[in-house]
Automatic annotation (TrEMBL):
One of its GO terms (biological process) is maintenance of CRISPR repeat elements. This is Uncharacterized protein. Gene3D superfamilies: 3.30.70.2660. It comes from Spongiactinospora rosea.
């Protein structure tokens, strides 16, 4: 706890902590699932009930999360990742990008991560296991179809 000027140097319940943020970070999220669910997600992203932000209200997206005319496609997520173009500004990196794709636990190369939220309760935060496969995709050329 830290002293607060208004409290004449007495300790208060203010907790000072360090935070780390990614500035100018760029992420691509590809969802795979039933078409009806993906349509609902796309509609919610296009017209959210609450303003969209990344963790805090001050961290709003710099561009649309889903470009006009974009939406669900009848292709596996990994296929979309393989043909997706580089979204960043500046030169396209020459090295492949790392991917983390959920998979069945029995799949070859599956790794277990204990990060699937089960409870968000402040007194009882719990996580379950999920299987992921770590891979790489080679970035496609500038002429490839753009999506977000």
């Amino acid at each position: 706890m830290a002293p607060c000027p208004e409290d004449q140097g007495h300790l208060t319940r203010t907790v000072i902590s360090e935070r780390y943020y990614l500035a100018d970070a760029l992420f691509l999220v590809v969802l795979e699932g039933e078409v009806n669910m993906l349509d609902r997600v796309a509609a919610a992203v296009r017209s959210p009930h609450w303003p969209l932000s990344f963790g805090r209200k001050a961290y709003v997206p710099a561009r649309p999360l889903l470009e006009p005319g974009e939406g669900p496609e009848a292709q596996p997520a990994e296929e979309i990742l393989k043909r997706h173009r580089w979204l960043g500004e500046g030169p396209q990196p020459t090295e492949p990008l790392r991917t983390v794709v959920e998979c069945s636990p029995g799949m070859a190369g599956a790794e277990v991560r204990y990060d699937q939220p089960v409870s968000f309760s402040a007194n009882d935060r719990r996580f379950a296991a999920r299987a992921v496969r770590i891979g790489e995709v080679v970035l496609t050329s500038e002429g490839a179809r753009q999506c977000s």
